[in-house]
Amino acid sequence: MTQIYRKTEGPADWRGLLADPDRQWRAGFSAMAAAQSWEEGFPPEVAVLCGADAALQLAIVEHKVAMPGRGLPSQCDVFALVHADGQDMAVAVEAKVDEPFGPTIAEWLGPDPGTNKTLRLSTICSWLGLTDPAPDLRYQLFHRTAAAIAEARRFRRPVAAMIVQSFSPTRRWFDDFHAFAAALGLPAAPDTAASRALPCGLALRLGWASGDPAFLTDRCGNA
Q1: C-alpha torsion angle, residues 117, 122, 128, 131 (rounded to 10)
Q2: Domain assignment present for 198
Q3: Scanning 192, 202, 211, 216, which has the fewest C-beta atoms within 10 Å of its C-beta?
């Protein structure tokens, strides 16, 4: 995967980085909402969950992070290097509106998962300090959090954070996030973050940030 990145000049530059631009790049969907939000600066709802005096050092759009074993990487809507609470952190941001968190672990594994899927899931769970995760938990939350951990190691950051930036006025799919946090022994509430130590010594921070619904409209003529 590339280690050379290009600066964006505005929200429209995000479109070409999407896996399916024709389907994803629409007003009211998370891709456009996140692009418009981040292009105006470090979103305050994300910054506050990172900690006191949060400062954005770098943000990368649609950042791909290799996962254990073979297969597709974990593609973060935004990956950010942040300094907050006197610490450096690696932050994986998952933007949502009405989109679900994808298949459950049981659905992703399928009836005959094979060695590679089993290896990938077991490795991610070992990073999180989990054994036998509930099959109804959403796999996307696992691999997006794993992306934060992998990049925290690569950039030598003591804190890995995974933040859901939800633009849904009804906080759709929050229950799935809550269940994932509970599996890690963490409380979850909208617009709060919780932390715990990981087996590798890093600190993990999870949070649900309520994005400004004003970004659900096309503010810049991004068609």
Answers
A1: 130
A2: yes
A3: 192
Structure tokens at 193: 């973050």
**pLDDT for 164-221, tens place per residue?**
999 999 999 999 999 999 999 999 999 999 999 999 999 999 999 999 999 999 987 7
Query: Can you state the angle between helices 139-154 and 114-128, rounded to 10 degrees?
Result: 60
Q: What domain count does the chain have?
A: 1
Query: Are the CB atoms for 153 and 198 separated by under 8 Å?
Result: no
Let me know if residue 11 belongs to a domain: no
What is 178-210 written as a DSSP string?
HHHHHHTT----TT-EEEEE-TTS-EEEEEEEE
Phi, psi of 23 (to 5 degrees): -90, -40
CB-count burial class (<10 Å; 0-12, 13-18, 19+) for 187: exposed
Residue 10 belongs to a domain: no
pLDDT per residue over 83-131, tens digit each?
Answer: 999 999 999 999 999 999 999 999 999 999 889 999 999 999 999 999 9
H helix runs in the chain, sequence order: 21-24, 30-39, 44-50, 105-109, 114-128, 139-154, 174-183
Q: Copy the structure tokens of residue 149.
A: 């951990």
CB 206 within 8 A of CB 191: no
Largest CA-CA distance found in the chain, in angstroms, rounded:
48
